[in-house]
Each structure stands twice: as structure tokens, then as C-alpha cells.
């Protein structure tokens, strides 16, 4: 390739993945953007930049071949909403990307789409959650800005067939611009003694961490670990969980674990529990599968992959079934280990970042 293709990822809250010293919460959307950017930067045919929040760091830093630029400061006030697009555009005009990629609802997709239109570059929106494509996120000023980005994306990248189906039903014209590229994760070979039941997520309402504590109360002889970051939309639930754990002898509470270090918690888990109302395709599922940890999901099963690949159990949003299925897994080590092996094999076949980055490149070269 004579000329490098310039790719710019816009994911403001991802800075903590590049710099572990940064005190900034990130989620699955940021993890996927970080993993894709660092993997793409390994290819000399691409020049990769990344836009993050201004936390007082240097204007430009470089990590693993990715040029990381600070843009606007954190804050949802009107002044910042007015200032943010100009700060973002300053970086985009400087890096002059051929393609801009953003993920997760917010104002950034809207600003990125407008920049792409005016600069005659391309904008790719990577869908983070089923709710991103159902129209629920289009309300209010921020929602309208996000909607502009969603509607004007040159390409939509879905995590699951479920998301494609939602698009086909609600926005048929956008479904024609959608492709399926499953979430990606690096393959690892990490072994630890399996000794805990694990939950990882935020205190957002849809995650329902309180159900995990209800489950822990039913198994006083087992060790449970909850890693729960503060969600700005529900700090009260985070405080409630923290206070409740103080009265529970069989639960360890962690507010934050470094992304590099969190693998060992998945590796030490007998079972990984998900209690969410909905998800896209959780990165935590991939982290569990990578360490041969079976999944126990209260409700979420994107494209029915857990059931189809026998890498865990799904409970139909029924707490009694959740409790009984955990009992079944704890009493049957052989079944747990078999599900763990099958889960890891599924990960290799469907979510290996080395394979999936080649799928991305097909659309980045167009």
C-alpha cells in the first residue's frame, strides 16, 4: 500500500486503558475501541490516532503505536456541550483521518458524523448496545445529536445478529449499511485456582448488581467477588451495594481493578454471573471465556450463543432458576470445566482479535 490509511478512534473515556494511572471509569465500548486501535496499529498500512478526554495530560502521547490526543474536558453542562465539538474538531482537523470510528451513544457520534460530511471522510459507528439501535437513545438534545450520528454513519458495525434484526425492523434503510463483526478479544493462556463466583460491571440500573448479592446470601459457604464501578447515573445504588457488602462475610468488594490485572479475577472464578436487563455483547463474557470460566446469565444471551455453544447456563430472568443453576454448577466440577473449555473454543473461533481485525480491514480499505 503506497499511502497509509489514517484511522481516528473517538472514545473519550478510554484514556484509562492507555494510562492505568488515570482515574477514569471505562466500559465495554471503550475496551473494544482500545483493543481494535492497538491491534490495527501493528499494521504498517495504517496510521492510528485516538481521541480521549482532557485530564490534564500532554496534548499528544503515544502508546503501542497509537497516537493519543486529548480533546475536551469532562462535563455535561451547556458550556461544555458547546465547547466540546470545537475541541474535538481541532484534533480531527490536525490528524486528518480518512475514517473516523466511534462507539456507544453520546454526542460524539453526531459530531464525528458532521465532521466526516464536511471533510469528505467516512464515519463508522460501532454499535455498543441493543438500546443504541432501537431509538431509545434519541430523546433530548444529546439524543438528537447522537441520532444525527447514527443516521449519517457510512457504515454501522453490529455486535450480534440480534442488533441487525432490530435495525431491519425499525430502520430498514440503515440495516442495508450494517455489517456484523463480533466483539474481539486477544487469546490468552492464564491459569489460576478456581475459587470464587464473580460479578463485574457498573452500578447502572440495567446491571442489577443487587441480584448478585441476593444470590451470595443463598450460598454462605461460597466465596463471591463483586467488582463494581460507580455509574454517574446511579451513585446511590453503588453506595447501597458497598454498605450491604459490609454485612456479608462471603463477599469481597472492589471498586476498581486495572484492566491488565482484572484477568486474574476471571481466571480465579468458578462461574461468572451476569444479571443485566440487556447488553450488546458484554466484554466480560469474553474475559470469562478466555479463562475457561463458564457463564451464568440471568437473562442476557446474545444470538443465543451461550445455549448453542454450551458454555454456560441462561435463566430466563428467573431468580430461582439462577439459584438452582449456580447450585448445579458448583456441585458439578466436571460440567463446569467442560463448559469452560467449550467457551474458550467458541472464543477462538468467533472473537479472536487477530481474525476479526482482518474483517475490519475489509471495510477500512474501501
Overall mean pLDDT stands at 92
SSE string: EHHEEEHEHEHHEHHEEHEHEHEHEHEHHH
- Name of the CATH homologous superfamily of the largest domain: Glycogen Phosphorylase B
- Radius of gyration, taken over Cα atoms and rounded to an integer in Å: 20 Å
Structural notes for this entry:
The mean pLDDT is 92. The two termini are 13 Å apart. By secondary structure, the protein is an alpha/beta fold. It has helices at residues 15-18, 28-40, 78-95, 108-119, 130-133, 140-151, 161-170, 172-175, 209-217, 235-245, 263-267, 283-290, 305-308, 319-331, 333-350, 353-364, and strands spanning 5-10, 46-52, 60-63, 66-70, 99-103, 122-126, 155-158, 178-180, 196-202, 224-229, 251-254, 269-274, 295-297, 312-314. The protein has an eight-stranded mixed beta sheet, sandwiched between helices. Strands 11-10-9-12-13-14 form a six-stranded parallel beta sheet, with helices on both faces. Strand 10, helix 10 and strand 11 (251-254) form a beta-alpha-beta unit. The protein contains 16 helices and 14 strands. Helix 3 crosses helix 4 (108-119), helix 4 crosses helix 6 (140-151) and helix 12 (283-290) crosses helix 15. It folds into two domains: 5-184 and 353-364, Glycogen Phosphorylase B (Rossmann fold); 196-350, Rossmann fold, CATH 3.40.50.
Summarize this structure as a short list of keywords or feature phrases.
8-stranded mixed β-sheet
